[in-house]
Amino acid sequence: MENRTTDANTGIPLSLLWRIFRKYWILLAVIALVVAIGVGVLYAALYTPQYSSKSQFYVSNVTSNDPLYSSGQTAAAEDMAQNCVNYMNGSIVLDRILTEAGLQGTLNVTQLHNMITTRVSSGSAVFTVEVEGSDAELNLRIARAVEQVLPAYVDYFNSQTTEPMVGTDSKMLKLIDQSELDQTPNNSSNRIKYPIIACVLALILGYLVLVILAITDRTVYGKNDLKEKMPKAAVFGVIPHWEIEEHSGSGKSRKGKRRLRRKKFLRDHIEERLINQNKVPFRISESFQQLCTNVTFCSTGEKGCTIGVLSSLANSGKSFVMANLALSLSRMIDKKVLLVDADMRCPMQNRIFRLENKFGLSNLLAGQSGNAVHSLNDGALDIITSGTIPPNPMELLSGPNMEALVSQWKQTYDYILFDLPPLGEVSDAASVAKLMSGYLFVIRSGLNDVQLVRESATFVEEKDARIFGYVLTDVEDEYLDSYYSKYAKYASYGSYRTEAQDSKETPAAG
Predict the structure, then answer these.
(1) Cα–Cα dist 232/226, whole Å
(2) Which of 196, 438, 442, 470 is the most exposed place for a label (fewest CB within 10 A)?
(3) The pLDDT of residue 491 is above 50
(4) How many Å is the Cα radius of gyration of the chain?
(5) What integer is the mean pLDDT of 238-248?
(6) For residue range 201-230, what is the model confidence (pLDDT) as tens digits?
(7) In the chain, what percentage of residues exceed pLDDT 90?
(8) What pLDDT, on the 0 to 100 scale, is given for residue 372?
(9) Beta strand pairing call for 173-177 and 381-384
(10) d(Cα 63, Cα 71) in Å, to the nearest integer?
(11) Residues 316, 443 contacting (CB under 8 angstroms)
């Protein structure tokens, strides 16, 4: 069985998370790559290199003969450095820096202020002045002007001089790291960093979107999905996806042998989807054998066990299931099976078995006389097609003639299978509930919404009908239990049929 380990923090099955990643990792990778390239191209188009020149100063302790601060004067040292930073941000100092750098008329005080950043080193008298802009030489020019102007004004504001003495040694402020020309942009690493960040975010967000969609998805894909969403549902059968090779009318392959994935229309090539054909995949015949076994357990030896089929939507594979179930049951020793196509709105059994449909169930229910039975498998399987399509199929199915026919058939057949219309579209299937021993509910993997399945099942059960179990059709390998996945390698071997069996089960209309 599939591992259903659950993340204790999220309550989400880990198998679901892994399945999403395994299925969509290529899509996620492509999205992440496209986003990264897009961000990289956009950043390159908008990118402007930024350079910086830094000067570092130390504020001397003018209250002591020793210019250094003692360990107990840490707070005072930091306050002195902060005062110098405040001087630096003042308009008087900034205007003098513009004059010293010869930038009057080129920059104004506000522009210069935006270019300069000051930082005080925690617990010390050291602070840094950084000039940043797109012109490295202009940055150096301004930084050198700061180194000349700021010390003079610090002395002046602290009454160390009677006027700012620009260009002279300062008593309070010492330059400990002179600015230099910066030839490497500060933001060059962003050209790589931003696309990488965008790539990671795209992967995470894309994966989260897929997980949310998977969690909120009410579609049934496999047995575990159905058991999680409908814990009381008894799964009678899981029919894997069956690929059919398309051939031309001459028997030669069209454009070579081309495998077609019929995800939308299971009814295409329906006449080739019978387990009595040659080269039937092993897991297909094995899945129907398991379904057959489960059905026989439900009949409990009842003579004339009547089994109807339910589906919430058309194209769920109900006709395909009933046709092959009838073939499987007819292989049992001393068992006689009748398959009745009671879908008089869109009949399929005549197409599946390639039978004429001129006279069938509708004609019998209308009181007409004639032979409606087609015999196959040496009489072990009889089929009654739908007959002429009537204007009132529900009235015919719920009428007294139907009840009389079922009673008559029960005397002859061990199993009577009814192919009925989809319950989600018309209520014909529920109108014969009192005549059925039980129903099989067919669900198409990836097509049926679990809420619609619940509503259909509840509607039938309210008619005092019994649902034997659920049958999943067209299930992809990733949603199969390990049993079928393990034996998938035998698909090319066929179903180990003997020539005698093939000749015995060749359809012959009677």
Answers:
(1) 9
(2) 196
(3) no
(4) 42
(5) 72
(6) 999 998 888 888 877 778 888 888 888 888
(7) 34
(8) 92
(9) unpaired
(10) 15
(11) yes
Q: Sheet of 373-376: strands edge to edge?
A: 235-240, 467-475, 438-444, 305-310, 415-419, 337-341, 381-384, 373-376
Instruction: Give the separation between CA 143 and CA 128, rounded to whole angstroms.
Output: 11
Encoding tokens for residue 213? 């969609």
Q: Where in 182-332 does DSSP place strands (E)?
A: 235-240, 244-247, 253-260, 305-310
As a whole number of angstroms, the distance between CA 482 and CA 3 comes to 10
Beta bridge partners of 471: 237, 442
At position 386, the amino acid (one-letter code) is: S
Tokens of 188: 């060059």
Of 351, 216, 197, 166, nearest to 274 (Cα)? 351
pLDDT at 358 exceeding the cut of 60: yes
Q: What is the pLDDT of residues 307-326, one digit of tens each?
A: 999 898 888 889 999 999 99
Between strands 381-384 and 337-341, the pairing is parallel
- Which domains does the chain show, CATH number per domain? 14-47+188-216 (no CATH), 51-177 (3.30.1890), 223-245+272-498 (3.40.50.300)
Q: Which amino acid is present at 56?
A: Q
Rounded-to-integer distance, Cα 165 and Cα 163, Å = 6
Q: Are 339 and 383 in contact (CB under 8 A)?
A: yes
Q: Which residues, listed in sequence order, are joined to residue 396 by a DSSP beta bridge? A: none
d(CA 461, CA 93) in angstroms, rounded, equals 89
Residue where the block lists tokens 């009381």: 232
Supply 173's token pair.
């402020």
Are 217 and 457 in contact by the 8 Å Cβ rule? The answer is no
3-state secondary structure of 110: helix
Q: Which helix (H) or strand (E) holds 352?
A: helix 349-353
Query: Which tens digits make up the pLDDT trace of 83-113?
Result: 888 888 889 999 999 999 999 888 999 999 9
Alpha-carbon distance of 283 to 293, in angstroms, equals: 15
Query: Residue 288, class by beta-carbon neighbours within 10 Å (0-12 exposed, 13-18 middle, 19+ buried)?
Result: buried
Q: What is the DSSP string of 133-198?
A: ES-HHHHHHHHHHHHHHHHHHHHHHTTSSSS--TTSPPSSEEEEE------S-TTTTHHHHHHHHH
The distance of Cα 352 from the centroid of its chain, to the nearest Å, equals 35
pLDDT surpasses 90 at 193:
no
Token pair of 317 as six digits:
């594979």
Amino acid at 340: V
Which residues make Cβ contacts (< 8 Å) with residue 142, sequence separation at least 6?
Answer: 53, 97, 101, 103, 112, 115, 116, 131
Q: Which residue's entry shows tokens 């894309």?
A: 206
To the nearest 5 percent, what fractions of the chain are helix, strand and coil? 45, 20, 35
Determine how many CB atoms are found less than 10 A away from the CB of residue 462.
10
- Say if residues 205 and 197 touch (Cβ distance below 8 Å): no
Q: What is the mean pLDDT of residues 410-431?
A: 89
